[in-house]
Amino acid sequence: MTSPVPRRGRAASLRRAGRAPALDGRAARSARTRAAIADAVLAFLEEGRLEPTSLAIAARAGIAERTLFHHFADLEALFTEVAERQIERVRERFPFEQPAGTLSQRIDAFVARRAALHEFVTPVRRAALRLEPTSPAIARRLAWARRELRRDVARSFAREVEAAPAARRHDLRGALTVATSWSCWEQLRRHQGLSAPRARAVVRQLVASTLEEE
Predict the structure, then answer these.
(1) Cα–Cα distances in Å, from 13 out to 5, 16, 22, 26, 104?
(2) Is position 77 within any domain?
(3) Distance in angstroms (rounded) separating the CA atoms of residues 53 and 38
(4) Both 170 and 107 in a single domain?
(5) Is the pLDDT of residue 213 over 90?
(6) In this predicted model, what pLDDT tens digit does every residue of 79-117 receive, in sequence order?
(7) What is the largest CA-CA distance in the chain?
(8) Average pLDDT over residues 143-152
(9) What single string gives the DSSP state of each residue in 18-78?
């Protein structure tokens, strides 16, 4: 009985079938290595080391230095991976949750979540701001993050914003966005030297006074 697949075609089919799992495994290992490299960079940034060497990054990731350059042809490629990894971490830790309860309770919940978010991202954000003027990848992701935080404010206090006069809504969203921004948090924490609880209390006061004026 002849085979339904010609011998050469059958051999090729078997090779392809055997190659698919190998390729899948290689891709998975590559993804794990890239994630380990990005996590190593993020760990250095969180420790305040804004310019770790390639050798130090490789050592922390548990790979050879040449492996780092195999996965990332240039710094922009590495920045892209690190930025995406940071976004992934933020999404996992701080999923959007619509505040519930009275206005006072919703302000408390929103400010607590936003303060925790700012504390978490601060070391990486400081490094990102240094790179923003020269790295398109970092600039794009910072712009995305700012848009997301604006949307977060708009969704969390949509009821109050919509109740305001139409001519005031844009300014109201803007005031709330600035009061709860990372830039405001950095001003309070770094430049005014406030503790995290004191900075959180100031942000809460800013949000409450802005909304109570309406």
Answers:
(1) 9, 5, 15, 20, 66
(2) no
(3) 13
(4) yes
(5) no
(6) 899 999 999 999 999 988 888 899 999 999 999 999 999
(7) 88
(8) 94
(9) HHHHHHHHHHHHHHHHHHHHHHHHHHHHHTT-SS--HHHHHHHHTS-HHHHHHH-SSHHHH
pLDDT at position 22 is 56
Domain boundary among 72, 90, 112: 72
Task: Please tell me the distance from the alpha carbon of residue 93 to that of residue 84, in angstroms, as a whole number.
Answer: 14
Could you tell me how many residues make up the chain?
214
Domain that holds residue 191: 98-212
What number is the average pLDDT over the span 197-210?
97
Q: Which two tokens stand for residue 204?
A: 């809460």
- Is 124 a member of any domain? yes
Per-residue confidence band for 3, with pLDDT thresholds at 50, 70 and 90 = very low
